[in-house]
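Q: Here's a chain of 230 amino acids. Please give me its 3D structure as tokens.
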Amino acid sequence: MVKDHIVKGSMNHYELHNKRTFTALSGKELKVSRIADTIWVNGVQVGGKQIIYNDDDAVHTIKSSLSPTTTNDELHTTTIEVTVWDSSKWSITNAKGETASGATVNLYASQADYARGKVAYSGKTNTAGHAILKRLVNGRYYIEAIYGNKTNTFRSTAEPNNGFYMGYAISGIFQSDTEVNTAAKQNNAAPGNFKWVDLNNDGVIDGKDYYGLPYESTLTISALTRKNRG
């Protein structure tokens, strides 16, 4: 609703101080939160990029709509939500398996950091299988999930090679014999087993198809939540 975002009058940047409240044209209450020059309204961050700027006026973007927000909402930070699935529970009716509660999710700033064991952020999945990692520095992160003795990284060797672990990348789970018969040839291909990425597209899964690990990654954007369903 447009009127949720409009306040009568004009004010300068310094009047948007922490905990100040305004009433929008719709009657909606809007609360300003401020840390240094970073500003939130009802928890939604005001974007740093200015659409219009001159000596008298400045127009900024916001990260999402204010309509569903309240003055009690927590401040949005750069967040990743990762869903972990236990593929060993695969069945015809559970195409990905079952979500895994209590799994560990580690984020690495690079694949080289993964090989060194240098974790940037870590968290556990909740009862719905979601790990929510907040207050991240913007950038690309490589995702490792660990659930008991299961993981989403499949190393080809016990030790890194030239500073990196290499291995197969998962492109999904075989759902039927038809998928097995039409996919690139690989060992242990069967419904319910992992389907590997055919990197060189030669129709055969072998050592030429190794990727740097972890294969799965995500790029964060300031003050937004990115969901990786896996």
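Q: Can you summarize the key feature?
A: The chain has two helices and 20 strands.
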